[in-house]
Amino acid sequence: MLERVRLAQFRSHRRAALELDGRPVAIWGPNGAGKTNILEAVSLFSPGRGLRRAKAEEIARRPASVGWAVGGLVAGGGPVHEIEMRAEGGGSRQVKIDGKAAAQLALGRILRVLWLVPAMDRLWIEAAEGRRRFLDRIALSFEPEHGEAALVYEKAMRERNRLLRDQVRDPHWYRALEAQMAEAGMALERGRTAALAEIGAAQAAAETAFPVADLTMEYPEGAAPGSVGDLLAALAESRGRDLAAGRSLVGPHRADLGAVYAVKGVAARDCSTGEQKALLVSLILANARALAARMGTPPILLLDEVSAHLDAGRRAALYDEICALGAQAWMTGTGPELFEDLGSRAQRFEVSEAEGESKVEEVVT
Question: Is 0.85 topped by the overall pTM?
Answer without folding.
Answer: yes
